[in-house]
Each structure stands twice: as structure tokens, then as C-alpha cells.
Amino acid sequence: MEIDTHCVRADEEGFKGQILDVMLKLGYYRTQHLMFTCIQTQADENSYVIPVFWLRTNVATINEHKQARSIRKKCAQFTVNIVPAVVTDEVEALYHLYRHHVPFNTSDTCTSYLHQPYLDNPFESYMVQVRDGALLIAAGFFDKGSRTIAGIMNMYHPNYQSFSLGKYLMLQKIDFARANGIAWYYTGYISTASTRFDYKTFPDIASVEVYLPVEKKWVPYRFMDKTHLHDYYMNYLV
Fold it and tell me: CB of 43 within 8 A of CB of 196?
């Protein structure tokens, strides 16, 4: 559930190309067929409200650390394909396993997470597929603009938890960005009141920027870490 949100509905052009670039730069993000922005969220239905701040990663400046290199090496045995996004029975089966493995509430199906019934997708969407032989063990969805990508969802087979497949999917999206001249990888939000979203600073926290909604600008996260963002939230957003 998103709190204090402002939503924008797509026109006939959708949220593609430079339109997506602009919306992401303004601190908006995708939910199903809309784009929204917020400064708070409720992580679970019965939980308290927590502050959030949007993040993006400068692809050109990423210097992958030891953990990233280790994950790449560990997952080198798997095959990776990036294809136009589509939700198949195989994807739904993986989502079902993942949904019952993660310790938080999420949509009942992958389709309902991504789409509204009977509406065309206004985004140019792709999916990273990771396979062990023929078995689909991880999938990650993202949207593409002209100079941006936005990570939407990652999921993995619980039996492969030790491979850090969520982070491996992030690395594959970064590889796609590098190969396609993408400048910015928008990863979603982080919270000053929870560690649940901290993985979004992976694989190089020095390349991460955070959006300041009052000034409407992006600044290096290393200058505005969680302590500073908490003070910013209390002083300017409450």
C-alpha cells in the first residue's frame, strides 16, 4: 500500500523512450499501468508507515566490489537471456514458489503485480531469465526508456537462495544498461526506518544518487545517507 501518492496515467504514447526518462528523473516510478511518487509507504498491510526516498545508480561510474564479482563467478554456470517481458505459466510457477518463500506480503500472482486486466502495457518492458539447464530459477522485470532502465521486480527459486540471484539479476540489468548506452538504472526506494530495501545500493554505493523531493534534485547518496535523510524527512516532509 502506498501512502501520500500522486499518480499519473499514460496517454496514447505511453511511458516509453524519453517520456519514461523524464518521469523517473522527477521521482516517479511504475505501479502496474501508472506512474506514482510518494514519500511514505506501508511495507505490510498492518505495519506502520515508514519514510522512503527514491534511488538511482549512475551506470558509467559503477565499480563492482568483491561481493559482486563473487556472485558473477558463482552464477557463471547458469544461462541468461533478456527478452521482451511476458508472463507465462512457467513464470507464474516461479512467482508462486518465491511468494511463499519471502517474508512480506505481495500480490497473489505475477500478472496482478505487473498489470491491470485488459489494458495494454504502456511501458517497454523486458525480462531477465536465468536458467539452470531447462529450469527457470530466476526472473527480473524492468522497463526501458531512452537513457534509463527501471527495475520493477526480481524473483528466484527458493532452492537457489545461496546464489544471491536477486543481486545477480541486478548485475544482469546493469550489463544490459552498459550494452545499450543506458545512463541511469532506477532501483526504487530506500527507507530510513527499515533495512529491507538496502540491497538497492548494490553493487556500488558510491554510484548511487538519492532524490530530494523538496529541492526536486538528485544528490550523491554518500552525502545524504540514512542519518541525514531521517533528519531531512523530519525537518521538511512531516
Answer: yes
Tell me which residue has cell 500478472. 111
Give the number of domains in the chain: 1
Boundaries of domain holding 116: 2-237
pLDDT of 68 > 90? The answer is yes
Report whether pLDDT(1) > 70: no
Q: What's the confidence (pLDDT) of residue 194?
A: 92
At 214, list the grid cell. Answer: 523538496
| Average pLDDT over the chain, rounded to an integer | 93
3-state secondary structure of 107: coil
Would you give the end-to-end CA distance of the chain in angstroms? Answer: 19
Q: How many residues does the chain have?
A: 238
The closest alpha carbon to 40, from 26, 54, 30, belongs to 54
pLDDT for residue 86: 93
Strand partners, 57: 185, 208
- Residue 51: cis peptide before it, omega within 30 degrees of 0: no
Q: Are 165 and 34 in contact (CB under 8 A)?
A: no
How many CB atoms are located within 10 Å of the residue 209 CB?
20
Q: For 86, which DSSP code?
A: -
221: left (phi over 0), alpha (psi -120 to 50) or beta: alpha
Given a cut of 90, whether residue 105 has pLDDT beyond it is no
Could you count the other beta carbons within 10 Å of the beta carbon of residue 54? 24
Do 40 and 3 meet the contact criterion of CB atoms below 8 Å apart?
A: yes
Give the Cα separation of 134 and 130 in Å (integer): 10
CA distance 215 to 29: 18
Give the pLDDT confidence of 138-171 residue by residue, as tens digits: 999 999 999 999 999 999 999 999 999 999 999 9
